[in-house]
Amino acid sequence: MRENARHIFTGWTGVLFSKAVDPQLTEAIDAFLIDGKARRLSPRTLESYAFHLTRFATWCAETRPVTCLSDVDAHALRSYIAAQHDKGLSPWTVHGAARVLRTFWRWCAAETLVTANPMQRVRMPRLPREIQPSFSPEDVALLLKHCKTHRDRAAILFLLDTGVRNAEFAAIVGADMDVKAGLARVRSGKGGKGRYSVLSPTLLQ
């Protein structure tokens, strides 16, 4: 599925909507992804958009006679979201899919590809109110116990200390570390926004 999503994103080179009165759903998805690339959205964001919209287009083709944007109404969108719940996907995954659909249809409305945004009538799925448990001292001790090198130990302490995401941590280079100031520069933050994380004395040791 992800390979198909990447193909849709990279494979389009034509001119869209020059004569079409009612654009095809797949053509609109292509144009939306091209617009995202032009706006320099992150590759991870574009891949997520492509994946979820390709899944939606495939579901439409398999379950109902949907070919054009105007064929998609609020009921179809609700049915798709419900079908994702029925698959047993996590609430966060389904919510993420709904967010992508909301973004896509807002874009279609802004580009005047549709006369009305059908997603405006669809309520977003609820997320469970769960507080993720933090690592206990025993958990931290167990993680450090399994570190085979000083580098592994430093990496674990850095992740625990700063709370950066895995992808953010992987993008950090030596020049991003200011040991004297006790700061680490996170260049590849969510949404392409950088920031600084404070390093504790324990980590600096």
Description of the structure:
With 205 residues, the chain is mainly α. The protein has nine helices and three strands, in the order ααααααααβββα. Strands 1-2-3 form a three-stranded antiparallel β-sheet, with no helix packed on it. A hairpin with a 4-residue loop joins strand 1 and strand 2. The model is unreliable at 1-16 (pLDDT under 50).
Task: Say what oligomer this is.
Answer: single chain
Radius of gyration: 22 Å
**Mean pLDDT across residues:** 83
Strand order of the largest sheet: 1-2-3
Total beta strand runs: 3
- Helix fraction by DSSP (H/I, runs of at least 4): 40-55%
Q: Shape, please?
A: elongated
How far apart are the termini?
46 Å
Low-pLDDT ranges: 1-16
Sheet-strand content, in percent, reads: under 5%
Structural class: mainly alpha
Number of helices: 9
Main beta sheet strand tally, sense and closure? 3 strands, antiparallel
How would you spell out the order of helices and strands? HHHHHHHHEEEH
SSE layout and pairings?
Elements: H1 2-11, H2 25-38, H3 43-63, H4 74-86, H5 91-110, H6 137-145, H7 150-162, H8 166-170, E1 177-178, E2 183-186, E3 195-198, H9 201-204
Helix pairs in contact: 1-3, 2-3, 3-5, 4-5
Descriptors:
205 residues, mainly alpha, three-stranded antiparallel β-sheet, 53% helix, 9 helices
Short overview:
This protein is mainly alpha-helical and 205 residues long.
